[in-house]
């Protein structure tokens, strides 16, 4: 098989490429240049698309003896990921840019170009297990639960999964690092990437203010309607946020307040006690079914609403194209714009049933 190995410059993608070579595939390495100004991104091995990362990827490809190219996806990354990220926050939603990047760049754009060039599949260093059963994809959690990335892959379509390889799905991260060292790959002990690659200093609020400017509004007590202070824009807040609210005075009961709701049209940020963060119902739209199997009636499942968050037992069903989820126990900090992923636990590891974008919640 002709395989295009997406090489980010980290240890995971380097070992994934090496395993694709070992499997007998005809492998070509490619690094995606995602920034028009890569020199402005963080250095020190903490990003995922810096010049440093590109050089690390090239050195790994040289050791593996495979051709290597750099493809410029900066313009598409800006439109599909950065602009979308800013737009979602402006609309009072909480996006996950890594999910968007995987969906729109690493698999839609990259795979589209790879197939056009005659490649059969794209291999990445994601930690997730993928198999084809009678031609139908089955996406499952990885063997290393601490590194599992099935959440950020759950928005891929069946056709994209049919052209994907995740060689690390059955491995633990510590074993991958050891293998990289045995292979002589210089990235063996390179730290993992963290945070958002296009926000070098990690200050999301400041980044959004530079893009959106100030949009002042009121901080309002959700229970009494009293105005508690002012803010510079709803884009500076997320549901469940506690710190940095800028309240003029503490609550009467002395307990901390949390962001409960964002109203971008009026510019209102509603705050209240922690117990009001709890939701029992989630309504999500734009569902994707990686295994081509939409839910058939009410279905017992486990849901996850953050890439590194916990899980919750639930019953989900599709009504008029909308995924409606009833939680067994209340869940806190669920925000519109997040992706909810549905899993079915079984003996072979949690199977991804589908994913959808959270539109609203209920108690």
TrEMBL record:
Record protein name field: tRNA-specific 2-thiouridylase MnmA
EC code(s) of this entry: 2.8.1.13
UniProt keyword list: ATP-binding, Cytoplasm, Disulfide bond, Nucleotide-binding, RNA-binding, Transferase, tRNA processing, tRNA-binding
Function in brief: Catalyzes the 2-thiolation of uridine at the wobble position (U34) of tRNA, leading to the formation of s(2)U34.
One MF annotation (Gene Ontology) recorded for this entry: tRNA binding
Residue stretches making up the tRNA-specific 2-thiouridylase MnmA-like C-terminal domain: 281-358
Positions annotated as active site in the UniProt record: 101, 197
Top EC class of this enzyme: transferase
Catalytic activity: S-sulfanyl-L-cysteinyl-[protein] + uridine(34) in tRNA + AH2 + ATP = 2-thiouridine(34) in tRNA + L-cysteinyl-[protein] + A + AMP + diphosphate + H(+)
Chief location: cytoplasm
Any one GO CC term of the record: cytoplasm
Recorded family membership: Belongs to the MnmA/TRMU family.
Pfam families documented for this protein: tRNA_Me_trans, tRNA_Me_trans_C, tRNA_Me_trans_M
Binding residues for ATP: 6-13, 32, 125
Lineage of the organism: Bacteria, Bacillati, Actinomycetota, Actinomycetes, Pseudonocardiales
Domain tRNA-specific 2-thiouridylase MnmA-like central residue range list: 205-272
GO-annotated biological processes: tRNA wobble position uridine thiolation
Region of interest (Interaction with tRNA), residue spans: 147-149
């Amino acid at each position: 098989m002709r395989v295009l190995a997406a090489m980010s410059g980290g240890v995971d993608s380097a070992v994934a490429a090496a395993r694709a070579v070992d499997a007998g595939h005809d492998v070509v390495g490619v690094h995606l240049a995602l920034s028009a100004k890569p020199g402005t991104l963080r250095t020190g091995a903490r990003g995922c698309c810096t010049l440093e990362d590109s050089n690390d990827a090239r050195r790994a490809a040289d050791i593996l003896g495979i051709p290597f190219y750099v493809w410029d996806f900066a313009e598409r990354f800006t439109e599909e990921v950065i602009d979308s990220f800013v737009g979602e926050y402006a609309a009072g939603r909480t996006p996950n840019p890594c999910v968007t990047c995987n969906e729109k760049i690493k698999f839609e754009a990259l795979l589209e170009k790879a197939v056009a060039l005659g490649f059969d599949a794209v291999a990445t260093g994601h930690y997730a297990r993928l198999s084809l059963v009678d031609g139908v994809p089955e996406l499952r959690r990885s063997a290393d639960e601490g590194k599992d990335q099935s959440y950020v892959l759950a928005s891929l379509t069946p056709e994209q999964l049919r052209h994907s390889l995740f060689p690390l799905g059955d491995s633990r991260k510590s074993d991958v690092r050891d293998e990289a060292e045995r292979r002589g790959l210089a990235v063996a002990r390179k730290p993992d990437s963290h945070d958002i690659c296009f926000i070098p200093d990690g200050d999301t609020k400041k980044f959004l203010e530079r893009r959106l400017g100030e949009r002042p509004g009121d901080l309002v007590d959700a229970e009494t309607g009293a105005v508690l202070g002012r803010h510079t824009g709803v884009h500076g807040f997320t549901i469940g946020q506690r710190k940095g609210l800028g309240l003029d005075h503490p609550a009467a009961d002395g307990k901390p307040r949390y962001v409960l709701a964002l109203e971008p049209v009026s510019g209102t940020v509603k705050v209240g006690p922690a117990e009001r963060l709890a939701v029992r119902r989630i309504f999500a739209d734009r569902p994707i079914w990686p295994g081509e199997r939409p839910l058939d009636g009410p279905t017992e499942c486990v849901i996850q609403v953050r890439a590194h968050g916990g899980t919750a037992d639930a019953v989900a069903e599709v009504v008029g194209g909308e995924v409606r989820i009833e939680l067994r126990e209340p869940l806190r900090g669920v925000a519109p714009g997040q992706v909810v992923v549905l899993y079915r636990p079984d003996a072979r590891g949690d199977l991804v049933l589908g994913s959808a974008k959270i539109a609203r919640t209920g108690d």
